[in-house]
Write a structure and sequence with these properties.
Blueprint (H helix, E strand, L loop, with lengths): L5 E10 L4 H11 L3 E10 L2 E10 L5 H14 L3 E7 L1 H9 L5 E8 L4 H13 L3 E7 L15 E8 L5 H15 L2 E6 L9 E4 L10 H9 L2 H12 L5 H10 L7 H8 L7 H10 L3 E9 H11 L3 E10 L2 E7 L5 H14 L7 E5 L5 H6 L2 E5 L3 H6 L2 E3 L6 H5 L10
Parallel strand pairs: 9-10, 9-13, 10-11, 13-14, 14-15
Antiparallel strand pairs: 1-3, 1-4, 2-3, 5-7, 5-8, 6-7, 11-12
Length: about 400
């Protein structure tokens, strides 16, 4: 009997049926082998099972392999044995401390070309793919593509050769394929987010409230001109805010209720908030818009915090002035930190989502910052972007699967 350790990699494939893993591990149990690694995947009823085991010093591999071969044949599976040297196993063990990352691919429809472009860059960066999982449900062949969600998560091991070049390449791939590519460190914070902060206008709702109020007041063109001037950097957010609010002077207070009741929610908002609530996440609106509409959404979606700008009202009319400090980009970041401190939440556990340049300070402050259907400048400045599907895509970046999401 040899004193040299025998390590065997067992690969099993075939049609998946209940009890197969039990039958094979029962054979191994009879010989008291040590399980060094195990992995199993089932794709459309096709089983792929790998077991790396060590033969006990007092035993030999031949009887074990013979019984495994017989049992596999009996239950209709294909079997393959690969001897692994002790040196190779030890080298494998030394690699287990390497950094791990998660890549999430989000789209309406995932094509082979999409997958090829991403995996080529992974290979170029000398990263190894350990696991590929589908997070979204199966797509019906005759379903409407506008309603489809195709989301795949990859678990990677290693250290990228050039992190910035890789991220730039993913942005490029996203540009010509239309898929969203999120690249995150796989650490304890990624799996334990606790607070999600949202911009309101053009993020939670598919509208800019001040534009809707301006239409009702008959000053839409004037408000739009100021907005465009601010976007060009000719005036800052605070100055543009004061000028636009002044144009609303005299608007009847009742118009706000009418506008609020007709605000279109962004795709995926109901699904997202029901799921976040069910799993105990805290939520907040941090908006450069108005508290009236933030509070309307707070009641509708059971949001925990709302911070926005207060419009002054006298005798049932808007005065054209605001009350209190303006919530601009810097204030949003400050409020995010304040809520996290109050809730005793690490900033790495915070998610911030927005579409405008005034959202960038809070997006950069959060552990997971997301530019949602944002302008190119904002997308380029954020670590993560969602442009292909609705706001419930955030759940996939958090690692949720469709079966875990409140539909």
């Amino acid at each position: 009997m040899s004193n040299k350790r025998e390590i065997i990699l067992l690969n099993i494939s075939g049609k998946d049926k209940p009890g197969q893993t039990s039958a094979l591990t029962d054979v191994l149990a009879q010989y008291n082998v040590n399980i060094l690694d195990i992995g199993q995947a089932v794709i459309h009823q096709d089983l792929g099972l790998g077991i790396l085991f060590e033969v006990p010093a007092e035993a030999e591999s031949s009887p074990i392999l013979k019984d495994l071969l017989f049992k596999s044949y009996e239950i209709g599976l294909n079997v393959k044995f690969t001897p692994i040297t002790e040196e190779k196993y030890k080298a494998w063990v030394t690699r287990q401390g390497k950094e791990r990352f998660i890549i999430t691919l989000i789209s309406r429809k995932l094509t082979a070309a999409n997958l090829s472009a991403v995996t080529k860059e992974i290979y170029r960066q000398n990263l190894n793919i350990d696991i590929i999982s589908r997070l979204s449900g199966r797509i019906p062949l005759d379903g409407q593509e506008d309603n489809n969600k195709s989301v795949v998560e990859m678990s990677l091991r290693g250290k990228p050769l050039d992190m910035e070049a890789m991220k730039a390449r993913f942005v490029e791939i996203s540009g010509f394929t239309g898929i969203d590519i999120a690249f995150q460190k796989d650490n304890i914070f990624r799996r334990n987010r606790r607070l999600v902060c949202f911009d309101m206008d053009s993020t939670l709702i598919q509208a800019e409230v001040i534009d809707e109020l301006a239409r009702k007041a008959g000053v839409y063109e004037e408000v739009s001109t100021i907005t465009e001037s601010a976007m060009r950097g000719e005036i800052d957010f605070n100055e543009s805010f004061v000028k636009r609010v002044a144009l609303l002077k005299g608007l009847d207070e009742g118009v706000m209720k009418e506008v609020a009741e007709n605000l279109p929610l962004t795709e995926g908002v109901d699904r997202l908030f029901k799921t976040l609530k069910m799993y105990g996440y805290r939520t907040a609106i941090l908006s450069g818009g108005f508290t009236y509409f933030g509070n309307y959404l707070k009641n509708k979606l059971a949001i925990d915090y709302v911070f926005a700008n207060e419009l002054e009202i006298q005798n049932g009319k808007l005065t054209g002035r605001h009350v209190g400090e303006i919530v601009d980009g810097d204030k949003k970041a400050e409020l995010l930190k304040l809520i996290a401190f109050k809730e005793d939440i690490n900033l790495e556990q915070v998610i911030a989502v927005g579409d405008g340049s005034n959202d960038l300070p809070m997006i950069r402050q959060a552990g997971l910052g997301i530019a949602f259907h944002a302008k190119p400048k904002v997308k380029a400045s954020a670590d993560h972007a969602i442009s292909s599907i609705g706001l419930d895509a955030i759940l996939y970046l958090m690692g949720f699967r469709d079966r875990e999401i409140n539909l």
